[in-house]
Amino acid sequence: MRRFILDLIVSELTLLRPGGHVAVPSDGSASLRLVEDLAVDSLEMLSVAGALAEALHLHESGIEDFLLVHPSLDDWVEVCQRGLRSYSAKLTFRTSGSTGTAKRCTHSLANLWQEVVELAPLFSERQRILTAVPSHHIYGFIFTILLPHALGISESAVGDLRMSSAASLANLSREGDLIIGHPEYWRSVSRALPSIPSSLQGVTSTAACPAELSDALLGSGLGALTQIYGSSETAGVGWRANAAEPYKLFSYWARAESSPAMFVRTEADNSETDFPCQDALEWVDDRSFYPVGRADGAVQIAGTNVFASNVQRVLMEHPEIADASVRLMRPDEGVRLKAFIVPRDPCGVAELRTSLELWLRDRLTSLEIPKAITFGASLPKNAMGKCMDWIIA
Q1: Structural domain for 267, as ranges
Q2: Which of 61-65, 189-193, 254-258, 373-377 shows the lowest per-residue confidence on average (mean pLDDT)?
Q3: pTM of the full predicted structure?
């Protein structure tokens, strides 16, 4: 509970303070006071407390107002535990969308437990979990809170890797550990560790894990890398052991007969619910599939959905920019966004570059801000007049 609440506090304050840094104890062991230690003002307090009450449905027990009366981590843990003893049937998670309109996704605890029941046999011999993902996101909640409970792993045997370098995994891990990560974390591990103990088992989700990365990790010795397909709206839909295989649906999911772009879930209460696919899918058969690209135009950066179109819109609002294009870097360039900008005054590039830094920082999250900006007289286009990729200078 303490880890869940602390992760949520940090996430909410980070959103409320663009460009700022929220420094809190990584393990949450200190008696954290939101006002005195984090300088949380009254408006921020309402937002953070509201997010926590929403996540755990504290309104169902009528206890949410106590969060404002006792704004400390210890007190919030107690309030939430009291609330959950009264009502714990549902939880709400937010999507990782970065357009300012993150969607709220409510799941019954019984439905989430369906996934854990099918995951547990895959990791039955694990006795400790190390995580590089926050526990208040649905992926982190399932794998670092519910799965340990199913495996009989105590809270003290769940360690946090987020404040450590990827190279430190060699010293922090023990034989038989389960490592919960995302593609960017695993990419860092692959670069930092030429050899990985074969006794370690990994999990990756939040974005597609490229085949070359999966192959590199397994080739370095990693015992197994389980890939989970899903979203905040659906939770886990399927899994696979490596990137060469299709994802296999969990038993309670099915391909919708009405459309290949829909899933059908049999809920814990035996009712059925349709869900649209977030990706275009290539079906191998009725129980297995390959994702072949996002249907909504989002790209994943550090496990977060980022929309290049939103970044382009913000750039075009700048009075000194005539045109702009934004896209994800190529694998050889990096893993962030890049932008090509056509300035209104070709002679004012130096001044525009300086003003643009503050302009973007005030309007975008750190993951949305392009890390490479190229200036030119016109956008790069092909013979058909369509925007094309460019090489970072």
Answers
A1: 101-296
A2: 254-258
A3: 0.77
